[in-house]
Amino acid sequence: MDTQQKKKVTGITVLVVLLYIGILMGWQLYTPSDSLSMQLPGADNRPEGLARKAEDVYIGEFFMEYEKMTSELTGKWTNFRGEALDNIVKTDAPIKVEAEDYPILWSVETGEGHAAPAIYNGRVYFLDYIENMNSDALRCFSLETGKELWRRWYRVPMKRNHGFSRTIPAVGEGYVITIGPEGHVMCCDPETGELKWSLDMKKQYETEVPFWYTGQCPRVDDGQLILAPAGKETLLVGVDCLTGEVLWETPNTLEFKMSHSSVTPMTLGGKKTYVYIGVGGVCGVSGEEADRGTLLWSATRWQPSVVAPSPLKISNNQVFLVAGYGTGGALLQVDRNGSGWTASIVDQYKPNQGLASEQQTPILYNNMIISIMPKDAGGQRSKLVCFSPSNLHDPVWISGSEERFGLGPYLVINQNLFLFNDNGELYVYEIGQNSMKFLKKQQVMEGADAWGPMAYADGMLIVRDAHHVACLKII
Questions:
Q1: Quick check: 362 and 312 in contact, CB under 8 A?
Q2: Cα–Cα dist 454/363, whole Å
Q3: Helix or strand holding residue 21 (H, E)
């Protein structure tokens, strides 16, 4: 570079530096207006009380419709464990059990969780958690196509703890009801998604939500939503499904706290009863119109610190209770005592001493209790088992050494047991008299933590793992 070019470059560099210095000095010295004033609280004339805090939850605040749909399907899986609450399907449809894989009709991605679907007249509903929006979302899909029809959601920031959502909606004529991980109850129109009413159990009942979030599924009986807030003052509550009106409340004189278990209606000793396992024991509340909501009995000898399975009626006056984390099983007996009731634990044992389950509620089918044993069940760990209700200590059948399962769900359809393993593998067994025969297995998804209960309607089986929901055609 000659001397003339060097002088030229130096001159340009000096001009650029001076220009930037001038801009910086002008930005520091220039005042755009002398009439600016500081914005003080209340200066925007916002009405008092409308300021929104970061933790405020407005249940059902947002809505989006994607498609409209009509369907001629009439099949129903209305809530947790199905319409009859027994996890058993009886259908005239010929279920295929041949070696060929079931076709996967559709699959959708979800937020991390274990909340499973309900089905009603060609629509599939499940509660999701949208992580990038920090929101619970009730999502509605077409059962036939898997297309999302609408969703209603609300912001509720949470930290992941083995996923987020865990519960199954309750759906019926005029309502679909969800319970979110933090105890937020939402009721929408099942066709349009219109918000009908909501309830915050933490605010209204001072509920202490369990460590792994709410696992209690909404339970509907005689047009009433039966909840167990197990709050400071209220144990159980009945709510009108269509209006949200609170119809009755059971005082929490037992001081139970909310568990992951769901309320189960059953008839014991001729009395319709809502049976609930809380943290602190098990209780029965009247489900009859004359004295609905009245506490009938309680038993506190059996007190697991964590319980997910629901109570299982096994006779006219006996209920099987089970919980994980080393608790094992127990047999509860309920009897009339003059004008009152007595409830007592007549048998109790550790998981290596008899029938047990950690997460799923066992199934009573053809005088057999079907379950998957927990990891702490000794030689029977993670095996599929059958026990007689009259003997909870000695199994009548155990799966083979290569057939071990985790915390996944199982469902009876006609005479077949469908079992979904932790890793997304579907097993099918034929149920015999005190036995089971392995028929087939199919890898449905390469997933993990496939714990959400299955749902069936109109020849279609819906399964999920922690991140996906899939629909299989099984007829």
A1: yes
A2: 13
A3: helix 3-29
Two tokens, residue 215: 């696992």
Task: Give the pairing of strands 88-89 and 410-413.
Answer: parallel
Instruction: Give the residues across from 356 on adjacent strands.
Output: none
The mean pLDDT value of the chain amounts to 91
Cα dihedral 372, 325, 279, 408 sign: negative
Interatomic CA distance for residues 241 and 252, integer angstroms: 23
Tens digit of pLDDT for each residue in 304-322? 989 999 999 999 999 999 9
Question: Can you read off the two tokens belonging to residue 472?
Answer: 């299989």
State the Cα–Cα distance between residues 79 and 420, nearest whole angstrom.
Answer: 19
- Based on the number of CB atoms within 10 Å of its own CB, is 15 exposed (0-12), middle (13-18) or buried (19 or more)? exposed
Distance CA 468, CA 447 (A): 8
CA 447/CA 63 separation, integer angstroms: 30
Q: Give the side-chain half-sphere CA count within 13 A for 56.
A: 8
| pTM (whole model) above 0.70 | yes
Helix or strand run (H / E) with residue 202: helix 201-205
Say how many CA atoms lie within 13 Å of 424 toward its Cβ: 17
- State the Cα–Cα distance between residues 72 and 68, nearest whole angstrom: 14
For residue 379, what is the DSSP state? G
Cα separation, 354 vs 394, in Å, equals 6
Name the CA dihedral angle for 309, 411, 467, 377, rounded to a multiple of 10 degrees.
50
CA 136/CA 157 separation, integer angstroms: 9
Nearest CA-CA partner of 475 in 142, 148, 117, 100? 100
Beta strands in 302-424 (DSSP E): 312-313, 318-323, 328-337, 340-349, 363-365, 368-372, 384-387, 397-398, 410-413, 416-420
Q: Which residues contact 283 (CB under 8 A, 6 or more apart)?
A: 235, 254, 256, 275, 276, 295, 296, 297, 298, 299
Q: What is the mean pLDDT of residues 347-371?
A: 97
Q: What is the largest CA-CA distance in the chain?
A: 117
Cβ pair 77, 456 in contact under 8 A: yes
**Residue-wise pLDDT tens digits, 224-243:** 999 999 999 999 999 999 99
Q: 363 is written with which tokens? A: 């199934």
